[in-house]
Amino acid sequence: MILTEYTNYGLSLQHEPYLISAVLNDNKDLNPTDNIIDKLTSSIHIATIGEYTNYMLSESSTFDSAVWTYIDSNSEYDLPFTLTSWGVKTLYVKLKNSIGESNVKSITFSAI
After folding, report:
1. Number of domains in the chain
2. Which residue segment(s) compose the domain that 25 sits in?
3. pLDDT tens, 56-80?
4. What CATH number corresponds to the domain at position 27?
5. Sheet of 41-49, strands arranged across
6. Which one has a higher pLDDT value, 104 or 42?
7. Among 46, 34, 33, which Cα is nearest to 81's?
């Protein structure tokens, strides 16, 4: 499937990044049976195609008040986050480079 997405996306070295997936990183923080995380600070593991220089995480699908954070895409694929409160949450993530922005991926879970 990744190869199909790569081919369909038509990537070249001069293209915006593409997010394949985003998942909660630390399995011991997450109860996989009922999608529950037990702390407000964790990280998201991403799989991508293409280079990126910045990422943005938000609890809002419009990324209100979110800011771009620089990242070395050659070494980091775990993006740290801190939730604003407990409850059912959806986190949104997107990437960018000098060419443009990626698609948006989201993760929904409960923080209790």
Report:
1. 1
2. 2-111
3. 999 999 999 999 999 876 555 788 8
4. 2.60.40.10
5. 18-24, 41-49, 78-82
6. 104
7. 46
Task: Using the CB atoms, write b or e for 89-110: b if 16+ within 10 Å.
Answer: bebbbbbbbeeeebeebebebe
Phi (first) and psi of residue 23, to 5 degrees: -135, 155
Q: pLDDT tens across 80-100, in order? A: 888 888 999 999 999 999 999
CA 54 to mean position of chain CA atoms = 11
Look at the pTM and tell me if it is higher than 0.85.
no
Name the residue among 97, 46, 106 with its Cα closest to residue 76.
46
User: Do 93 and 60 form a contact (C-beta atoms < 8 A)?
Assistant: no
Pairing of strands 54-58, 69-70: antiparallel
Its sign, for the CA torsion 87, 83, 58, 102, is: negative
